[in-house]
Design a protein that fits this description.
Elements: E1 3-4, E2 7-8, H1 9-19, E3 41-44, H2 55-63, E4 71-74, H3 82-101, E5 106-111, H4 114-124, H5 128-131, E6 132-138, H6 156-161, H7 166-172, E7 182-187, E8 206-209, H8 222-233
Parallel strand pairs: 3-4, 3-5, 5-6, 6-7, 7-8
Antiparallel strand pairs: 1-2
Helix pairs in contact: 3-4
Organism: Streptomyces tanashiensis
Protein name: Triacylglycerol lipase
Keywords: Signal
Length: about 230
């Protein structure tokens, strides 16, 4: 049996199969009216997920003094194209958050596939860099993941996540962390989805090792949460 980094491909394919379970379409949450004392935070979930994955981290932000009027979760169909569809939907959502809060910029916190959606927006949208203060990637396939080959035949998002895809090539051109935006990543050496682990860090970002956590474990880890909140205060 073929082996990848000391693990058989069977568990890897099982992980992919679980990710490909049908997910109900979700709608982007409508931004909440109200004044914003801090830079609003927009959470962007990963592949085959929904805004509900941010429950724990949002609670940590509220305990840190944020109000619900400063915390937003972007929901989207994760089977669509990063560059042709999803980054544009995110751009419209961010503009809505800015209008509702009166803020000129937002902070973006993304998990997994959401890292590609947010990076494309920051890199290529005309207002992206001017609209984002901090960008955070938790377990993002920022240089592709071999796991995505298992679903690339029929799923556009998986194709975007494969090493060497059009999206990956365009994001790798020139400066990986452009503009005045502050960038940070968190990665795990036990991530069963991002392969290799070194896909997550970006040149020019603050890159943080999270220890041995599984792919979704970064969403609920106390140390990661504390680190993300500290980074957004920087």
């Amino acid at each position: 049996m073929l082996r990848l980094r000391g693990r058989t491909t069977a568990p890897l394919l099982a992980v992919v199969a679980s990710l490909l379970l049908a997910a109900a379409p979700v709608r982007a949450e409508t931004p909440v009216l109200g004044p914003s004392a801090r830079t609003p935070v927009v959470f962007v979930h990963g592949y085959n997920a929904d805004p509900g994955v941010w429950g724990g981290l949002r609670a940590d932000f509220r305990a840190d003094g944020y109000t619900d009027a400063e915390l937003f979760s972007f929901g989207y169909d994760t089977h669509r194209s990063v560059n042709e569809v999803l980054s544009g939907e995110l751009a419209a959502y961010v503009e809505g958050v800015k209008r509702q809060t009166g803020a000129s910029r937002v902070d973006l916190v993304a998990h997994s596939f959401g890292s590609l959606v947010t990076r494309w927006y920051v890199r290529f949208d005309a207002a992206g860099q001017a609209s984002v203060a901090h960008w955070v990637s938790l377990a993002g396939p920022n240089h592709g993941t071999g796991t995505a080959w298992a679903c690339a035949l029929w799923d556009q998002a998986c194709r975007d996540m494969t090493p060497g895809s059009y999206v990956q090539k365009k994001l790798a051109e020139g400066d990986e962390t452009p503009g005045a935006v502050r960038y940070a990543t968190w990665w795990s050496n036990c991530d069963e989805v991002i392969n290799p682990d070194s896909s997550v860090p970006l040149a020019g970002a603050v890159n943080n090792g999270a220890g041995c956590l599984d792919h979704n474990g970064l969403l609920g880890d106390d140390a990661v949460s504390e680190g993300v909140r500290a980074f957004l205060r920087s």
